[in-house]
Design a protein that fits this description.
The protein is mainly alpha-helical. The protein is 61% helix and 1% strand. It contains 18 helices and two strands.
Length: 453
């Protein structure tokens, strides 16, 4: 008697389905009359769009968050943002640890895949640190926000501060302050600094946190060269993040300096802080202190590049990721210089890492190109607006040149799918939907040289 093979889901498929399930549950809740500020239910498509943008921590919205949703609806959105930022697997693992339940091998595999880790050792401690670190940073951010929002909004300012802190740390970019995001606070140093720090910390990634803390603890008072003792991953993430933020801020400052629709009429100091914030928020955060549609084409192009690269791995940010782009660029230069290996900070990068970097970049470009063509075919959007929108959706940024609210049904569906693909990751999607890996014993096809370039 032939025994039927038991159907089992891979860890990657479970992660994909967990995000999809969260979106569907969230959309059902947001479609209820109690979630609407007016008491009249919002259309299911808009509820689905909002649930997707919240769970995928993107920030693109078809309806103004502050005026569309009731307190209940805002709570649902905030929970979706927190779940999306941390991941449903992390939340469930945290609950298991809270209930003193042991994590099995399948649970550990889920966590390993969810955070794209290379080892299964110390995962319980890792999850605890992630949850504790997240809530501490979000709590501090909320307290600092209250210094501005409580005097302005009263008791409501407490809720606004909590919401904004979670949204900023998770790189979601959704707020309940005004319909023009943070434009009313473009020149407020405290709001700029707190929001930027939350975005950067969330985007750097958890393993960079622990690495910096580890080195700082082990460093003696005489030897404070922390950077030198960091892992290669942390060195790349910190260096590329700092370079992109600083470089982006300088270029935006130059390109927008005389633009009266953005920073042209501001003081020199305000021009600096607004340019800096624009560079930071494009790293998949999505808050705006200046209308994106008023940017010059040069600044919009810089913003698109920054959005596409995004944050760092194992964090709350999206995009191709800093480490990925650094590996790819260095690999290209190594090839140009006829070097047999790719090196960064005195360390060789494995060929497997280079292959993954190429796959990630190609997958992102395919998603962006496909969604851009489809969006332009189903709407009257200009090329730059459509690219800005689709890159923002793929990299889970949330910035828009005022296009999201004008999308038709087809446009909304295109962006919903794009946000989902961008959040779960092209590689995870390919692994989940693909067949089993090729056996190592299979005889490979003959090799033949081809002309490149």
């Amino acid at each position: 008697m032939v025994r039927k093979k038991k159907f089992t889901l891979s860890t990657t498929q479970i992660i994909l389905l967990s995000f999809l399930g969260t979106i569907l549950v969230g959309s059902a809740l947001l479609a209820l009359p109690i979630s609407s500020a007016t008491g009249a239910p919002v259309s299911y498509l808009d509820a689905l769009f909002t649930a997707t943008t919240s769970t995928c921590v993107t920030g693109l919205v078809t309806l103004p968050t502050v005026s569309t949703w009731s307190v209940f609806g805002q709570i649902v959105i905030l929970l979706l943002i927190q779940i999306g930022g941390l991941g449903i697997i992390t939340i469930m693992s945290g609950l298991m640890l809270l209930l003193n339940k042991k994590m099995g091998i399948s649970d550990r595999l889920l966590i390993q895949d969810a955070f794209n880790l290379n080892t299964m050792s110390g995962l319980a401690k890792f999850v605890k640190n992630v949850l504790l670190g997240t809530f501490i940073i979000e709590g501090i951010g909320a307290i600092l926000y209250m210094l501005v929002f409580v005097p302005e909004f009263g008791a409501k300012g407490v809720w606004i501060s909590i919401f904004n802190s979670v949204s900023a740390f998770c790189n979601a970019g959704i707020d309940i302050i005004a319909e023009n995001s943070l434009c009313n606070y473009a020149t407020n140093p405290l709001i700029n600094i707190v929001t930027s720090v939350l975005i950067i910390l969330g985007g750097l990634g958890y393993i960079v946190w622990w690495d910096v803390i580890r080195v700082a603890k082990n460093s003696s008072k005489k030897n404070r060269r922390i950077f030198r003792h960091l892992t290669l991953h942390s060195k790349i993430a910190i260096t590329v993040t700092a370079g992109l933020i600083l470089g982006g801020a300088i270029l935006i400052f130059i390109f927008e300096y005389t633009n009266p629709l953005t920073i042209g009429e501001m003081s020199f100091f305000d021009k600096i802080q607004v340019s800096f914030f624009q560079s930071v928020t494009t790293r998949t955060a999505g808050f705006a202190t200046i209308p994106q549609e008023n940017l010059t084409n040069a600044s919009a192009t810089i913003s698109i590049i920054l959005m596409l690269i995004g944050g760092s791995p194992v964090g709350t940010a999206g995009g191709i990721k800093t480490v990925t782009i650094a590996v790819l660029i260095c690999s290209a230069f190594s090839t140009i210089r006829n070097k047999n290996s790719t090196t960064l900070f005195g360390r060789c990068v494995s060929n497997e890492s280079i292959k993954k970097a190429i796959a990630v970049v190609v997958s992102f470009l395919i998603i962006c190109t496909t969604s851009t063509v489809l969006l332009m075919a189903t709407s009257n959007a200009s090329a730059i607006d459509a690219v800005y929108e689709t890159v923002s959706a793929t990299a889970t940024v949330g910035l828009s040149r005022n296009l999201t609210s004008t999308l038709n049904t087809f446009g909304k569906l295109i962006i919903i799918v794009t946000m989902y693909f961008g959040r779960v990751g092209p590689i995870s999607l390919a692994v989940a939907l693909g067949s089993k890996s090729e056996s190592q014993n299979v005889i490979s096809e003959p090799t033949e040289d081809i002309s490149i370039g």
